[in-house]
Amino acid sequence: MTQDLKQAIKNKARQLGFVLTGVTLPDPPPHYATFENWLAQGHHGAMHYLASERSRQRRADPRQILPECKSILVLATPYTPTSPFRRGDGGEVGVRVAAYARGLDYHDVLPARMKELVQFIEEQVRGPVKNRWYTDSGPLLERDLAQRAGLGWIGKNTCLIHPKHGSYFLLSEILLDLELAPDPPFLTDHCGSCTRCIQACPTACILPDRTLDARKCISYLTIELKDDIPLELREKIGNWAFGCDICQMVCPWNRFAAEGDPAFEPNAPPPSPTEELTLTPQAFNQRFKHTPIQRARRRGYLRNIAVVLGNTGDMHHLPVLQNALTDEEPLIREHAQWAIEQITKRANSE
Ligand code: B12
Ligand code: SF4
Ligand code: SF4
Fold it and tell me: Residue 84 burial (CB < 10 Å; 0-12/13-18/19+)?
């Protein structure tokens, strides 16, 4: 009977777009010590929320979140991979945005699906089931739980990878006051002797213990960091304006990654850097409403665009950058000034 219930839940989850599902117990995650060590080294940078006492206690023991929890359902939703180099409209320099961030924000899309799945479960057991659901922002070590629920292995690039689906997917979890038999953990490491991600990472931030020095990761610098991007890392950002997919793009396990969920398909043409740099606060909010890019806010996103122009622009981009020198945001002004100097230096050395 419980096996039938578990299968029915998995079937329903699949209908809702969760291509991978697994069940694990709410026991402490197997690599919690790795997380503590990561924090102790300061590798979380300015993501202080990860180091709070409350967050640590909960990550160390999911029952701190829901004492009645008897099982955790771990779910994965795919998104379409980044395509090879794109150029912006009008032949301008290309601006790259991480593949997961080109459509709707998954933090908005996935909760409704998890809610529907919980309703389904409650219908099946004919009564309320205490639950909590999360996707990304909850105090859980999502990758560790996903590995223990059998969804894949942790690659050297630190991503959870499934042998058929690759790593271009988002994780979600539902904690349930319901006994479900746990799935076997995914124990094989399919990275073998490959080191492509380590070699391709522009900032060399991938560490040997399957963690990152997030302070140097382009994803952190362009999304999470709210202040100045350290000077020595700006050139390494290349043309990434939001997030980075390089260590996934080079991974052989992503060669056959299936199609993504339609909700995350790009909902606008590739951005043109000159247009982006002239976005007013209202235009920014309108354009990026309900997309992950909102997280960087206008000041962070335009800061990143200035860095991209500093790395890839030419003399044609000087007027728009000079205009940005009058922006009300000091952060944008400072990065625009840097970009002007980079472009001028390049032009003078040609
Ligand atoms: C903070 C954070 C970041 C930081 C730090 C990332 C990092 N690698 O630590 C930054 C901003 C850099 C980041 C970037 C990205 N992120 Co992020 N991020 C998170 C967040 C909120 C916490 C991760 C964390 O705790 N990091 C600390 C390290 C120590 O923990 P960890 O990476 O989870 O690693 C654990 C396991 O790997 C395990 N472990 C270590 N060694 C070994 C060995 C074995 C054998 C095993 C089994 C396990 C194991 O130990 C760790 C502790 O349990 C999670 C959501 C969540 N709540 O978990 C999303 C999450 C990890 N991010 C996600 C995504 C999509 C991304 C990006 C692809 C976005 C982008 N395109 O820019 C990049 C990928 C960069 C990369 N290579 O990791 C997805 C990953 C999905 C997947 N397939 O793995 C998550 C799960 C969000 C989600 N709900 O989908 N992210
Ligand atoms: S996301 Fe980019 S910067 Fe971060 S580890 Fe991967 S390749 Fe390196
Ligand atoms: S690129 Fe190679 S080493 Fe890196 S995660 Fe993929 S298989 Fe593992």
Answer: exposed
Task: Assess whether the C-beta atom of 246 lies below 6 angstroms from ligand 1.
Answer: no
Nearest-atom number in ligand 3 for the CA of 155 is 5
* Confidence category of residue 87, pLDDT binned at 50, 70, 90: very low
Ligand closest in space to the Cα of 43: 1
Stretch 42-65: mean pLDDT: 98
Please identify which residue in the block is written with the tokens 């709410």.
Answer: 26
For 187-221, how does the pLDDT look when each residue is reduced to its tens digit (9 = 90+)? 999 999 999 999 999 999 999 999 999 999 999 99
Fold classified for 271-350: Leucine-rich Repeat Variant (1.25.10)
Which residue in 201, 170, 186, 189 sits closest to 253, CA to CA?
189
At residue 85 the predicted structure's pLDDT band, cuts being 50, 70 and 90, is very low
Return the half-sphere exposure (C-beta side, CA atoms, 13 A cut-off) of residue 206: 18
| Of the candidate ranges 108-117, 172-181, 254-263, 267-276, the one whose mean pLDDT is the lowest | 267-276
How far is the C-alpha of 254 from the C-alpha of 96, rounded, in Å?
18
Q: Where are the chain's structural domains?
A: 2-95+103-176, 271-350
220 lines ligand 1 (CB under 6 A): yes
Question: How much is the pTM?
Answer: 0.96
Which of 186, 194, 249 to mutate for ligand 3's pocket (most ligand atoms within 8 Å of CB)? 194
Rounded distance between C-alpha atoms, residue 3 and residue 14, angstroms: 16
**How far is Cα of residue 312 from the mean position of the Cα atoms in its chain?**
24
Residue 217 Cα to ligand 1 middle (Å): 12
